[in-house]
Batch of 2 targets.
Target 1
Amino acid sequence: MVTPLLSLDAVDHVFADGSFGLRGCSLGLERGLRHALLGANGAGKTTLLQHLNGLLRPSAGTLRWNGQPFDYSRAGMAELRRRVGLVFQNPDRQLFSAQVEEDVSFGPLNLGLDAATVRARVASALEAVGLQGQGARAVHHLSFGQKKRVCIAGVLAMEPEVLLLDEPMAGLDAPMQRELEVLLDGLAARGVTVLLSTHDVDFAYRWADRIHLMADGRAIASGPAQQVAQDEAALRSAGQRTPSALALHALLAERGVLARDAYPRSVDAVLDALRALPTLHSGVATP
Amino acid sequence: MLIETAAYASRWRQVAPSAKALFALAGVGAAWLAHSPAVLALLALLLALAALFGARIALRSFLGLVAAPLGFLLLSCLAMLAGLDAHGHWGWHGAPLELVARTALRSLAVLAALLGLVLTTPLPDLISLLRRLRTPELLLDLMVLCYRMLFVLRQAWDDGVSAQRARLGYGDWRHAWRSMGLLAGQLAVQVWQRSAALQMAADARGYAGTLRFLPAVFPQARRQNLQAALAGALLLALAAGDRLW
């Protein structure tokens, strides 16, 4: 079996008040794939992401990068955070400079790069999120969606191998969600491993290569999106339902309208399959 | 907020902050140097016109900002002219009118020079100028964080007030005081949480003890500095001529 790029092995996380964030959580992320972390609120998604970036240290268990246990020394953490970037859910908690360009330059400057390289990286990161030419704007003049993009640019400018995003779709309108999806697809196409947390099962099923279901601080199912999305019991335990596309397709297949052995990834794909069928003229007489 | 909005909207927004600072400094210097009320008045007028027409600052925001210091100035001028004398009697002080006029006009000129800088330069630009002038890092880091936090907290406060108002939190005086107190307490907790979150966000991006940011570039800085120096020299020459003559 291929060694996962990032993995958790029976990780526990106990908060200061004694409550559990993670409880025996084991999970592996394969390189270059799109991963979705699916679970209800309080399932431990954010805690897991913060562990992968080394912001939290496990109470028990081991995290590994390429099979090697995390090195929690200062230098080890600097190295890990260069490779694994984390975008927080609330942009106002991540942005601390007043100017877009300044904030995006924060990470690469911390990597010790020279000014010219940093400037080039800032420009290309802003272009990647569609904010080219907006570097001189004030952060507090931006909309929520734009702030979110600045946050993503701030992490992209560090050129990480793994991008972690905590609920990236939360608070974005539909067009902006689509734009973000295109951006994430572009990153995945460039070989960046992407892991995002969400509680939208339809989005996870449509977008991800791998789905990891979380409940009560544990990964209860993990695997190819198609396989996990059909595991009704696991979905239910994680507070999720079957993706609409699969449910719709199953009903149509049961009634003999569509072929059984297909697994459309979205409702649109089901509609396309229906459109491809010959139109029936049932000859209903109009009085 | 008025200063902030004006600075981002002004026509001199893209002019190098060093040039604007140079011009303002020359304005302040000239105001100290000049002697006769007429020249001081001319300086104040020139500096105000530069801000209003050169930088296209809206008259409304300019007047709005001038009003408060003008009030103080008026009070001090009145105090120079009239008040209690050594025996406790009200009366005219007999301070020469020329002295009062000179003081007032000099203050006005300095005020116009500083407003010309502040109303055209957003704080991030000023901070990056201070950074180039080798101001201690710690002070600048504090300024950066305070400035950003100001807007975050203002937003949190406004959201809180709206949420309370929606549930009739400001119906009468008693409720208003109670709501305000609750919100202030709540914000204290939020500030603490936000500072923890900010620390985490900085750590996630490899924070190593100093806040480092890329300074903004002003491609025409050299030419603009030269222009500002020339204009400033004219003001200084005007003032020096007045003093020597």
Note: Chain A has twelve helices and ten strands.
Target 2
Amino acid sequence: MARHHHAPAVTRRAQTRLGLLLALPALIMTVVFFLFPMGSALYFSVVDFDGIDPTPEFVGFANYTEMFTDPEVWHALSNNVIWIVIGTAAPMVIGLLIAVLIWSVQRGSVIYRLAFFLPFILPGVVIGIVWTWIYDPANGWLNRALGAIGLESLQRGWLGDPSLALYAVLATAIWAYSAFVIVIFLSALRNVDIELVDASRIDGANAGNRLIHIILPQIMPVFLMVLTLTLVGGFSVFDIVFIMTGGGPADASNVLGTYSYTQAFQLSRIGYGTTLALLITVLSVPFAVALNRLQRRMALQETGV
Amino acid sequence: MLFVTAAALALSACTGGAPSGEAENVPQETAAQQEIRYMIGQPEDPADLKLIKEDIKKFESENTGITVKLDVVPSENVRTVLQTQLRSGEGPDVFGYDTGPGFAGALARAGLVYDLTKAYSDNNWPIYDFAKERVTFDGKIVGVPNQIEEVGIFYNKDIFTKLGLAQPQNLGDLKAAAQKIKDSGVTPMVVSDKDGWQGGHLLSIVLSSDVGSDGMDALLNGEKSWDSPEVVSSLAVWQDFQKSGLLNPSPTAVTYDSGNAMFYSGKAAMNPTGSWLALDVERNAKFEVGFIPFPAPDGPGIFSGGLGSGIFISATTKKADAAIKFIGYGLTEEHGRWAVENLQDIPAYPVNTDGIEATPLFKQILDDSAKIAEGTGDFGYNIDVLTTDAFNNTMWKGVQAVLTEQKTPEKVAKELQTAYEKSKK
Amino acid sequence: MLDQPTIPQAQTATEDDRSAVTHRRPSPRKRAGLAVRHVILVVLALLTLFPVVLIISTVFKTPADIRTDPFGLFTSFSMENLVSAWTVGRFSDYLLNSILLSVPSTLAVVAISTMAGYAFARLPFPGRTVIFYTVLLGLLVPFFTYMIPLYFQLRSMGLLDTLVGANLVLTLTGIAFGTFFMRAFFSELPEELEQAARVDGCSELQIFLRVMMPLTSSGMGALAVFTFLSNWNNFLVPLLYLPSGDYRPLTTGLYMFTGGRSLDIGPLAAGTLITILPVIVLFLLLQRQVTQGFISGAVKG
């Protein structure tokens, strides 16, 4: 019976009532704690608010003008870009290689999965703290290890070296994020048609070719999805930079997130800090949307195949 | 009209509501049993918190009509939390805060602190004159200084003796001594500046010795520009030391803890920091330690420092008497000796230190500060308790930039002046 | 189609099947290749786990040892750091606060998301699409956008510095993803079940509670684990919305320890261990749910 196209009015009414009821909590939370403050954010960006005075002065676009002419904004943004580019590429490559490696040995993969995923479940604070120890110039293991293998010349101040600080923090983030990528790819690799891989091996394709031309296309949707997540997250990175360098030394490793936070909560420049936060939003949302669309399109193509 | 009201209401909801009106004559509670709220920033040593709580219990047992509720706030949040609460009328009755025009002074200007001038004269509180001055604004004494801090250089006497070095009498001596220490394979001076706040002390000690307290006064009052040659040269001292290899490599990568560890283990001969570390130094250094001011170009220099924090009463408190009793409890001779022995505080009033359990190092520090406080010496200033957050931010980042050579001392000095002017608006 | 959230046990069986079917007895060259790959993996795994090893080593050193050689591996043994972190360092309080922040908000997220997910997946009502995308907006927009104004809003609502306030914020940050996640689960369930239940005389509410919801219990489980982990590890929310020390959880407690002027790498390490131990235990016990949660979440995202 094709009843599902002609549900009785009673059922429809009941469904409407229940639907609204069940959706209500989510909606209320969203409106009160998300939409309303988002609106306030726009208000904050056009006033000069110090967090205390309840009637702050309206300053029009002054915050925006300041933001576009503030050299530190461009500097922080360039750090974000570096973070996004390297912080996306490196975990993808490393994660994919390790996932393929685990997949290809098959035995013990459960244990490997456990070991490699662990970094991702640790809180950013903890990761930041322990890696700060590793980077400690006097006692930390990085310099120690370098010294032990005779590479003293490579020893550095790492987190205190303005030209290296950002990259040091980034390396730590890559360590943690690769974990996530590995597990995702492992799961996706299970769906890869191993016959194709074997066939290509018989045909004489080497490991590299097999990887790029056979395996990769089969996991492309997952690949793109990871790409989206990393790209979007790259503009709002905060925790780990804040813990390891606080944006320093002397703003060398400042990113938009830490800059916004320090302006708002350490210097009490709420208006300016909010404006910077809005910049983060404006930058990341289009990427999220665009890549989401791209991913949907590719998923549809997959189904077509 | 309705729309405007609604919008105004909505906007005030955004910003958190209007503060209660000016509290001129706040009606006082007269109940027999009163509870006062006491807010402090987190003590650096968690063990101190336990001691403070015990001290409060002792006060309560001696004053049975008063109970004290202790609120401990992370030290970097104290300013915001306090300001918010005081302005909304929900502040603590008593609180610890930084003395100085940028902090207590700001509260005083906003009418948020209780005028203690009468309490001082009524109770004959024995605070040193110079300390009283630093908590007086617009002719009103609004706070009670907790402790004196000095910032200078701890140095490893054993290493100095071994290398035949005498206590440096001027900047030139210091540099020469450092060079000799470096040649012997030891790091002359350890500078930790990863955390940032050390920068304020680094600048303060060199600058105070160079221009003296008068010069520091002038700088903090705006009479002297932060762009001046002495500020530039003080910043340059650190860059110069760093370039000459007289400091540990990469100071901005070294945390406060790591830096101290280097001193304790003998890897570094000198550690520029404050008297608050004295207890730790006693515990961990297996060698004799001395404490001297950072030398001036032309003389032995003066300690920077003076007041650490102070204790204040909220202007809108309903329990002023109880609060004043609580403060008075902390100003007795007995309490002073307790603070010296247990918290390693240097009280801001004369305390007889005979027979107190303290090591030679700390006794020396106590004596020095007493002399200075009683007028036979000079104290420089710790800049960071006397200026605004924005100025400090510029200063801390500036010193880091000088140490990493990201910026020249001239550039940083200019930034300091700009920051100073901005904060005066 | 994208990866379905199937039970991993089935997958592992397939793996083994495949290896039995497609790999003959490996030739010596292949064996060597396999061994090399294992060696590489083991080395990489050890490097990956090194930071955790470092934490454990540092926790159990004597304070004197830490003063002179803070990071030497396992050079002494003492429980002192744990004790002092737990008592003087207040980490026992922080642990309790972390629990008080993570558990209620996780329960709230699962409850609200399940309800909303069902509504959006299976109950036609006016405005459904609009409301759905509104809730989903939270996925697109980074927390940074509204975190500053939210601070002042909570302040004026009297919720700043309260467990309730912080829990509400944590709940909010979880329901965008949670709703999306549960909706995907519900939309895969066959309509026939619904019809059958209706024929049997169940009300719509009963259909939801007795028929449909139990079928998504694995999804709810995965969501719960995922949300709990996120909230336990959350740093920004307590940093901003619990500024005084009263309800400080482990993450901000650790951060407080790193500032300041005392030499306490030992207790700090102990605090770190206290923070990650529940998470690691949870992970080891429930690793299927954890990884499934992350994977499905990411894949469906």
Note: Chain B is about 50% helix and 15% strand.
